[in-house]
Amino acid sequence: QEKSCHLSAALLGEDSEISQEQLYELLKYAALGKCHNAAQPSWCRIYHQSHLAGVVVVVLHEMSQLHFYRFYLQFKHLRRVFRHRFTLTPSANFPVSLYGEGTNLKPQNTPQGLTSTSSECITKSPDLQCDPIIQRYGEKKQGLTSYTLTLEEQKKNDYPIEGSPGCKGYISTECDQQRTDSSPLFGLDCEMCLTAKGNEVTRVSLVDARGQCLLNELVKPESTVVNYRTRFSGITKKMLLPVKTRLSDIQTRLKKMLPHDAVLVGHSLNSDLQALEMIHPSVIDTSLLFARSEGRRFKLKFLAKAVLGKEIQCEQKLGHDPTEDARAALELAQFFIEQGPTKVAELNLEMLLTAEKLAEVSQNKAVLQPQRCGFQEQLNEPPPLSKPCFLDCLQVTGQKPLLLGRQGLDSSGLCQSNLSTSNKQILQRALEDVPLSKFSIIQFSLGPEYLASHLHAGLHEKVRSKLTDMLTIYAGPFEENFCMKSVKKEFGRCGPIQSLTVVTETFQPYVCIQYEVLEAAQLAVESLNGAEVAGSCIKVQRPVTAAMLDCNVLIKELELDVENEGVIYVAGLKKSLTETDLQEEFSQLKDLETLFLPKDLQSGKHRNCCFLKFQKTQSAVDALEALNGRTMKGSELRSRNALAPGHLWRWIWQKNHSNGKQGKHIFYEKMEQLSDSEQDLRKKVKKLDHHIKKLYRSLQNNTLCIVLFPGVNSTHGSQSGLGLMGIKDDEGRSAC
User: Fold this and answer.
1) Please, which residues bridge with residue 476 across strands?
2) Cis status, amide bond into 509, omega within 30 of 0
3) How far apart are CA 183 and CA 324, in angstroms?
4) What's the whole-number mean pLDDT along residues 265-275?
5) pTM over 0.90, yes/no
6) Which residues form the RRM domain (predicted)?
7) 156-354: which CATH topology?
8) 241-257: pLDDT as tens digits
9) Would you give the distance in Å from CA 124 to the centre of its chain?
10) Fewer Cβ within 10 Å of end Cβ, the chain: N or C?
11) Rounded distance, CA 716 to CA 518, Å?
12) Which CATH superfamily is domain 568-642 in?
């Protein structure tokens, strides 16, 4: 049975603020894994990383944590799907940080002879001993059997192997005769489409040692086609309509055509054999034959041009020609065998690739600069950084990462970068291209008209004002000479109080209490409304404002938020209790995973409440029943389901304290002027959430998906970012 990936992260409370460096750490490990010396991130763990189908990062350009909580109800998909969230340190140059500390265009080890982008200017390295090809094969020419993959190499590179658990039902070519250096070579290439089953063959080409085409056949997939991948495969729905040939027919024909000592040649041939569901014992993989340092691979298009002087996969053509690709791979293998490793090493392919990249960069600058794209200016002169470019590291996967967005995201030539004019276009391209890439960055934007600083300021005040109202309750009426100490003590049992004042404008006294956490305010409304406090039967309610009319809806949705699953809030703790004391007191609770004891961010002292996270939702329900009304060290406990994730609790506290106790509606007049814009903005956000939902549903299972509100760090002020992440499972939700 195939292992499923899952993610764990200790993100409850104050530890949930993640730096750009920590985010880069996660992305690097997810994309490269241990086999490329990437380390598990320090703040979360990915289990079974090698089974990840891909990594997709969705960036919401110039949006912050502020946007997520202002439009919490509109982000219906995001809050219901992603189980892990974290506050993200804002960056003035977010794309550069994301790509792994800068996309520096200047190679770190540029030889003295490299003064222009022409290949003629490249000096050959005098020391070939360090070349990975020489290190692997030696300097002398050898026969073809020296370059076929061993059984261990096939296993390591995901080739179908007889008897492997994942190859049940695969057909053997039955080419079991001993290979010699005179065994015949055959070039093989397939084009695939994406179906409900996964990758399925739509076209197969086989060429002999002279390059003559023996087979070039369209194949009808067994399952429903999800994506024809026309831009790459050249296959359309119309082309496959009359096709009767099935995979089983192709398998039979290949078995008949291949002699018993045949050696198959292809570029990343494992993908072709997996799609064909066939097992062949003797293969030469040109992506591994010409492998670069640290296992990185050259693309077939580049090798064909650099080694054979041939242009293949031209942009003018619709999709790849599998016969052309099969012939190119075959000729590359023949060149390697005939010329030997030394001749290949002397081609200095690494430097040729560098020259080609620099030429692309020069061309891209000329094309993109007049457009004044937002990220283009940021990436033109990146700071010198010690670590290798993240995009370059990703080339280890054998293909360029995919970047889609409105701005010029990448100027380094290291990515498949596409500019689009609308979120809808970006989504359409993403649905086509993301399944073809192991690492994708998709950027959506609300548009420049919604990112103006004055609009952002109004948005900030609205969020702060609504949070303040949700944290505030009014209680009363009380008798004229009521005991304020008794009131403070009773309401303090619900959680930490920020302020308590007497309302004197009413006929009888009321009190206004502002709490520091949402759970405390909600607990006060639920448990003390209609109760007798300080000798009076009182009513407890929140402020009645237009913004608060949907408060009950918001509270309900917060309770259903996936990040709050299995988390409960406990109040009424004595401040003298330490975290160790509480661990002992709660140790008998089943499946308790984490205890978070909030601190005052200024004094460092503990609050009189805590959050408990359980491994199972039912265990949290049982704990609520066990704890409500229980006495601990002489103090009665009160508890309920959590409403605010740990990072939101911290954010609320910072917002309340950074704004002091000034009037809640100081931007009221300005906000009225922006009401039409915000109405339109809500629709935009709702549509954006729908785009992300559609993209997420199209992802393969075991895909790590991270949605980033990168935050704002500019001269107008700083706003923290927010990250949501998870690994898609069979049910379409993100796995824990």
Assistant:
1) 539
2) no
3) 22
4) 94
5) no
6) 471-545, 566-644
7) Nucleotidyltransferase; domain 5 (3.30.420)
8) 999 999 999 999 999 99
9) 40
10) N
11) 29
12) RRM (RNA recognition motif) domain (3.30.70.330)
